[in-house]
C-alpha cells in the first residue's frame, strides 16, 4: 500500500469481487456508455467491438449534475454502463437508477489492485453498486509564466490581482466540497448549518473574482485557450494534460489545504435491456493493459495498474456521500444567482 493513503485504505471494506469462470450468455447488440472524457478511448472501443461484436455508443458528460439529469430523464433506460463517483453512488442507488452489481459476472475482477477489491462507500444495505475503476483529484491548474512556482494555497483564486483570470468548475457538490476544504473544515462532506453559510459566502466571494464557470474538460480547455486565464479549479489531471497538448505552459498542483480525491466506479444502469453487454464492457476495461493506457493517455489513476507520478494521494480528501445532495444543489444555484 505504497501509494494509497491510509485514509483510503480505511474506507475500503472487505468485499470480494469474484472472478467467476461460470459461463455467461454471449451478449449481442449494443452497449451504451454514459461517461467522462477518457473513459472510452477509440482504440479500446475498436478492440472491444472486434472482439465481441457488440457496438459501442458513447455519450460524454461534463459533470455530475449533467450526468444525473440524463439518467433521471429516462430512469436509466437510455444507458447500460454509467461511470459514477463514489460521492454520488448513493443518490443513484436511492433513486433506483443503477442496479446492484452481479459479482458472479465480474470475470476480470481479479485484476483489481488489492486496495480496490472492496469499497465500503459503494455498498448500501448489503448490495454493492459500483466497481472501482479510475481515481484522481480536483486540483489546481496554473499558468507557469504567471506562477514560476506552484501556488501554495487555494486562496490565490480569491486574490483580486487575478480577477477575471480565474475559472472554476460548475459542479454543485464538488464546489461545496472545495470551498469547505479551503475554509479548513475537517469533514467537507457533512456540513452543519453554520458551515453551509460559511461555504456559501466563500463561493459567492469567489464568483466575484471569476471570469466564468465551466462544465467538462473540453469547455474548460476552450475557455482557457480563448481568454487570459491563469488559474483554474479543475476537474482533474486531464485538464492540465489537454492544455499542455495545445502548447500551453501549465502546471497541476494540490495546494496545502488539500483537494477532493475522487474514485469513479463502473455501474450498471437499472434500465439496461442488455446487462450481458454491460458486463462485457466492464470486464473488458478492467484489463490491466487498459488501466495502464488510461493512465498514460489521460492522467487518471487506475485501479488495475499502479500509476507513476501521482504521489499526492496522501494529500487528498477522499470523496464521501454528502449529507444532503438536494440542499447542496439549491445552495449552488443561490451562489450562481448572487451578484
UniProtKB/TrEMBL annotation:
Family annotation (Gene3D superfamilies): Periplasmic binding protein-like II
Keywords tagged on the record: Periplasm, Signal, Transport
Domain of life of the source: Bacteria
Signal peptide start-end: 1-25
An example Gene Ontology CC term for this record: periplasmic space
Alphabetized GO MF terms: polyamine binding
GO biological process: polyamine transport
Main location: periplasm
Coiled-coil positions: none
Compartmental location: Periplasm
PANTHER family xref list: SPERMIDINE/PUTRESCINE-BINDING PERIPLASMIC PROTEIN, SPERMIDINE_PUTRESCINE-BINDING PERIPLASMIC PROTEIN
Protein name per the record: Extracellular solute-binding protein family 1
Organism, scientific name: Ancylobacter novellus (Thiobacillus novellus)
Amino acid at each position: 500500500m505504497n501509494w494509497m493513503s491510509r485514509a483510503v485504505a480505511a474506507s475500503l471494506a472487505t468485499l470480494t469481487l469474484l472472478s467467476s469462470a461460470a459461463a455467461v450468455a454471449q451478449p449481442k447488440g449494443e452497449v451504451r456508455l454514459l461517461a467522462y472524457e477518457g473513459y472510452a478511448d477509440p482504440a479500446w472501443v475498436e478492440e472491444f467491438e472486434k472482439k465481441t461484436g457488440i457496438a459501442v455508443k458513447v455519450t460524454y458528460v461534463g459533470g455530475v449534475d449533467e450526468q444525473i439529469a440524463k439518467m433521471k430523464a429516462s430512469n436509466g433506460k437510455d444507458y447500460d454502463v454509467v461511470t459514477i463517483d463514489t460521492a454520488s453512488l448513493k443518490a443513484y442507488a436511492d433513486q433506483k437508477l443503477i442496479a446492484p452489481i452481479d459479482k458472479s459476472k465480474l470475470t476480470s475482477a481479479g485484476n483489481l489492485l488489492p486496495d480496490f477489491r472492496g469499497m465500503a462507500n459503494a455498498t448500501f444495505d448489503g448490495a454493492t453498486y459500483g466497481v472501482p475503476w479510475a481515481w484522481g483529484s480536483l486540483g489546481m491548474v496554473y499558468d507557469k509564466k504567471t506562477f514560476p512556482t506552484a501556488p501554495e494555497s487555494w486562496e490565490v483564486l480569491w486574490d483580486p490581482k487575478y480577477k477575471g483570470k480565474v475559472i472554476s468548475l460548475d459542479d454543485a457538490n464538488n464546489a461545496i466540497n472545495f470551498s469547505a476544504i479551503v475554509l479548513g473544515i475537517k469533514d467537507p462532506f457533512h456540513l452543519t448549518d453554520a458551515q453551509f453559510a460559511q461555504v456559501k459566502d466563500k463561493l459567492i466571494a469567489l464568483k466575484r473574482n471569476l471570469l466564468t464557470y465551466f462544465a467538462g474538460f473540453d469547455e474548460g480547455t476552450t475557455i482557457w485557450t480563448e481568454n487570459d486565464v491563469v488559474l483554474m479549479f479543475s476537474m482533474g489531471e486531464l485538464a492540465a494534460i489537454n492544455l499542455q497538448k495545445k502548447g500551453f505552459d501549465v502546471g497541476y498542483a494540490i495546494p496545502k489545504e488539500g483537494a477532493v480525491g475522487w474514485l469513479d466506479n463502473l455501474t450498471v444502469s437499472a434500465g439496461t435491456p442488455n446487462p450481458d453487454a454491460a458486463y462485457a464492457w466492464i470486464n473488458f476495461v478492467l484489463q490491466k493493459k487498459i488501466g495502464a493506457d488510461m493512465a498514460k493517455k489521460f492522467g487518471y489513476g487506475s485501479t488495475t495498474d499502479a500509476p507513476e507520478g501521482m504521489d499526492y494521494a496522501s494529500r487528498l480528501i477522499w470523496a464521501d456521500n454528502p449529507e444532503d445532495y438536494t440542499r447542496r444543489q439549491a445552495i449552488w444555484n443561490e451562489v450562481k444567482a448572487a451578484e
